[in-house]
Amino acid sequence: MSAQLIDGKQIAQSIKNNLKGRISALKEKGITPGLAAVLVGDNPASQTYVNSKVKACEKLGLFSKVIKRPANIDQYELIQIINELNNNDKIHGILVQSPLPSDIDELTITLNIKPEKDVDGFHPYNVGIMLLGRGGLLPCTPHGIMKLLEYSNIDPSGKEVVIVGRSNIVGKPIAAMLLQKAKNANATITVVHSRSQNIPEITKRADILIAAIGQPEFIKGGMVKDGVVIIDVGINRIEAPETNKGYRLVGDVEFDSCFEKASYITPVPGGVGPMTIAMLMENTVKAAELISSSL
Ligand code: NAP
């Protein structure tokens, strides 16, 4: 068996195309959805992510603004910036690119973002609403995974889903979303992490496997069963002196050996990554709609 590729770029493009009507409707009311990205320090991967988000805004005709600050910014100053953005009528979505320097508490920063502008879906208010299955601003990467499954006609209902990784931004929220008593959810979930034992035995049970651990090519073909659907969230830079950049990107899944076993698989790059950006665009439009309807 060899797998069918799930084309995240194409699905992300459809989602962005579907936003165009909503954006025009807002513009007719004099509202241009606006996203502010706060970038602290000079982490090259963070800069790349923020650039991609700004480019996506430009292509869709959204307003965007990047606020760059050095790594030695103090927490109070960062909170002041967020307060200004909270009160800025042109801005409907605020994101603070992680990771932040170690002396800044990410939760404190998130708590200072108005929940209605929290387009990353990380504020505890939005996390709670998501857990209750009541919508709200959903976190972009797990929401993107849900859309990848939906657009590929893969129904998780009744399926055994194994999630590798329990981070607050991917593993835990995707577990909560797939567990909902709702269309395109209703899965049976197992989450494994660095303290789990016998991981290959557990991953072999998966009808759908979601890998989000940040360990290059951790999941090998021998760890999955025939016909599995594999969603690879990982983005890892590994040295590749033969390339211009000196590195290449690989996922948390060993692609070739898993491709032989899977029925569907996402590539890296071009799988989950573009979906994260598409869902961020959707959240920004949704935030603008909600904020403008409450005026
Ligand atoms: P994270 O916060 O570092 O969490 C990693 C999780 O994996 C933790 O729960 C950790 O367990 C677990 N883990 C690490 N090593 C393991 C091992 N050997 N066996 C089992 N579990 C292990 O990572 P994250 O933020 O979720 O990101 C994961 C990956 O996805 C990264 O490569 C990241 O770059 C990528 N990512 C991609 C997107 C995208 O848009 N495509 C978005 C977000 C993240 P413990 O909890 O026990 O430490």
How would you describe the overall organization of this protein?
The protein starts with a strand and ends with a helix. The chain has 10 helices and 11 strands. Strands 1-11-8-7-5-6 form a 6-stranded parallel sheet, with helices on both faces. A 3-stranded parallel sheet has the order 3-2-4, with helices on both faces. The chain has 2 domains: 30-114, 3-Layer(aba) Sandwich (Rossmann fold), CATH 3.40.50; 140-273, NAD(P)-binding Rossmann-like Domain (Rossmann fold, 3-Layer(aba) Sandwich). Helix 2 (44-60) packs across helix 10. By secondary structure, it is an alpha/beta fold. Strand 2, helix 2 (44-60) and strand 3 (63-69) form a beta-alpha-beta unit. The radius of gyration is 19 Å and the shape is globular. It has helices spanning 8-28, 44-60, 75-86, 106-112, 124-131, 140-151, 171-179, 199-203, 255-261, 272-293; strands spanning 4-5, 34-40, 63-69, 93-96, 160-164, 188-192, 208-211, 229-232, 236-239, 247-250, 264-265. The mean pLDDT is 97. NADP nicotinamide-adenine-dinucleotide phosphate binds next to helix 10.
Which secondary structure elements does this structure contain, and how are they paired or packed?
Blueprint (H helix, E strand, L loop, with lengths): L3 E2 L2 H21 L5 E7 L3 H17 L2 E7 L5 H12 L6 E4 L9 H7 L11 H8 L8 H12 L8 E5 L6 H9 L8 E5 L6 H5 L4 E4 L17 E4 L3 E4 L7 E4 L4 H7 L2 E2 L6 H22 L2
Parallel strand pairs: 1-11, 2-3, 2-4, 5-6, 5-7, 7-8, 8-11
Antiparallel strand pairs: 9-10
Helix pairs in contact: 1-10, 2-10, 6-7, 6-10
The site of NADP nicotinamide-adenine-dinucleotide phosphate has 24 residues, from helix 10.
